[in-house]
Amino acid sequence: MDLTRLLQSQGFGSRAECRALIAGGRVSVDGRRCVDWDEQFEAAGLVFCVDGVSWRYHKAVYLALHKPGCYECSHRPQYHRSVYSLLPVPLTRRGVEAVGRLDQDTTGLLLLSDDGAFVHRYTSPRKLVEKVYEVRTRYAVDEGQVQALLAGVTLRDEALTVAAVRCQRLDDRHLRLSVTLGRYHLVKRLLAAVGNRVESLHRVAIGGFVLPPELRAGDWMWLEAADLERLAAGCLAASAGGLRHGGHAAMEGAPGS
Predict the structure, then answer these.
(1) pTM
(2) Does the annotation count 114 as an active-site position?
């Protein structure tokens, strides 16, 4: 692949903008400044530098972001900053999208990709991808509430009964809860249905991929092959729990939990 096309594929601008980067001596490979925009490179695994910042060629973008509070999963946020502002410009130019959404006050693991098939796979209600949250509640949680969440509760204003896939009481006001649907404010509505209220919500895992403890709020990382394998391992069988009753299909990827 010629250097111009390579840079363009990685989000560094139009063909003309990429050629200007090269002509300006701002691109290097293996410590060598590149001046020929038609120079050919093997793209797979190539490491290159633009303005001294190192990049590795990726055919598609697969990212994990530790979302902080007070960020919106929108390109056009209304009240807070966009999660996309946490990414380098070349990645946003590639058209990465959040895989589902988290509310502005929900923190934790958020996946992003420019691969439409990947986004569909992990937002489709048919895939039953497990999402794990740690929930701080306003009131003490008793065993009756835990059992109700596991058995299934009816969401207010909807003829839909939803059950948690798993629900573990960690202490009086702290739950670890798993769901597979992506309804609007789902976890908050589940807790409201059993007479409680969410005070804070943090997503710790999607599928088999757990938010790395070293990934700080606001930071992001590339998902490598092993990470993607762990992620895929968490897709539950179609017969697993989640949707128990309802007059219409659940829409995964709706505004977050």
Answers:
(1) 0.89
(2) no
Largest alpha-carbon pair distance within the chain?
69
96-140 pLDDT, tens digit per residue, is 999 999 999 999 999 999 999 999 999 887 888 999 999 999 999
Q: What's the CA gap between 125 and 153, in Å, rounded?
A: 18
Residues 121 and 192 reside in one and the same domain: yes
Token pair listed for 240 = 């697993």
145 three-state secondary structure: helix
Contacts of 158 by beta carbon, 8 Å cutoff, 6+ apart: 246
Taking the CA atoms of 204, 208, 212 and 217 in sequence, report the sign of the dihedral they define. Answer: negative
153 within 8 A of 193, measured Cβ to Cβ: yes
Domain count for the chain: 2
Measure the CA dihedral 93/99/104/109, to 10°: -110
Asked if 137 and 218 sit in the same domain, the reply is yes
Point out the catalytic residue in the list 30, 38, 103, 171.
Answer: 103
Find the length of the chain: 257
